[in-house]
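note to self: dont lose this again. the chain is below, predicted strucutre after it. 361 aa total, dont forget to put it in the shared folder this time
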Amino acid sequence: MGIIHGHQRPLTTLRSALEGDRMHHAWIFSGPEGVGKCTVAEELARILLDPTLDGSHLGEPEPVLNTEVGTLLAAGTHPDLHVIRKEDAAWSDNRQLRERKQLNIPLDLLRERMIGGRTSDGKIKEAPAYRTPSMGNGKVFIIDESELLDRTAQNVLLKTLEEPPAGTYIILVTSKPDQLLPTIRSRCQQLPFGGLGADSMADWIRESGHEDDESSRSWLLTWAEGSPGRYENARKHDLVQWDATLEPLLNQMDDGRFAPDLAPTMVELIEQYAEVQLAENNKGSKEAANRSGVRTLIGLLGHHLRRKLSGSGDADAQTGICATIDLLVQIEQESESHINIKQLMESLSASWRDPEAARAS
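---
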């Protein structure tokens, strides 16, 4: 069980619901990636599943884990806590599901892990959501990255959200709540999360044991924007070095001098990013890894442009920078349906100095 840093407002809302006996059966925890939404969901599960605890224990600095329930939760073996992720497909007994690329959370996986019913291999799955709790204290289902539920899975999930079994709680964790169906959102209590403050991030860094040098830590903190997950991801992919590699090329472009190495350098960095992702999960989708790499690169370019914008006092220059930021948004949108990385990066490089013309085309 992870220690919670920050998030006092969401914790206060949840304590109020627990202590006032107004605990809704379905929640959407939404907010930026990597800020700790799933950690709070698991902490809420600790309170809901342990009859010795109440709302006052939620988010305590040293969680009570020396009970039978706490021991099982800490080991990840509690039979009534079900955390569902797209990666779970790798352990399915459905060969087709097991061997598919992990792009989303398909209906078959949801049937296996939660709602039951007939899967594509013709088997009937019992619904874990409707079983009697193994330990008699209710059940909690956490669907991480719930925006990845495909449209069919979301529609089938509606029935369970409308008529949940007694003592069953469902938490949808997402950084993109707009990708959930309006009917899903209307049946859930929505709880927004923000990034961590400076003090909470400092506490998290001390706990993490990371020993980055002062310059790297300063860059990583700025990049993370209050998200431990973004900080960790940046360390894993060495985005500090990405920034050092790209900055002279971008400055050259900003000065009106074309940098022929920019596009191939960006392509190489994206490919390196995807390789790291796929090395961690050989069932992962290369297409999804490439898109994630593009989003990370676009974020880094936006980081560069925001620095330029904050340091510029010239109105015309600011207008040009804002137009380039708009260009990045356009390129990122195109990457969702057009994943020819080389072509995208060449287009971005060619348009950097004249983004208005690119947008018009």
